[in-house]
Amino acid sequence: MSDDDVAAADDLSAMDEREAVREVTVRASGHEHVSAEHASTFEVTSDDWLTPAGDCILAVEADTTPADVPRSFVDACRSRTATITAEFRAADATETVTGHGHPDLSYEGDRSMVGRTSDHVDERTIMIGADKAAAEFDRRLVTALERGAPLTVTLRVEP
Description:
The protein is an alpha/beta fold.
């Protein structure tokens, strides 16, 4: 490889890094059946309904599902060393969850995104090894969501 080829490859790598998406914003709505009692997961769904059995679901009518997330974000999440953070904001309450990436994260789910305290991965999983589940969320946030407050979730990845 010539010096020019190496320089061109370095330029492309730097451009890819600058253009890589490292933050995704999801907007959703609370619902009267939000209870946030699940001990190992949290979930945000694009469905417009929720039953009392959905004790991990924090919000409905999400405008983004895992399948909508840019590929550069997903690729960064596929590193075992990636740190993935989800910040939840509703009313005057904020909750932050930190977890990890995994090579098997596909972000192919087209209905809901799930954070897990375990290492289980499926098409809905957005992070594993989360440092908290729905049951540990700030109750002020949960109460606001139960009252139907709008929710903003900001996902960030550090590869």
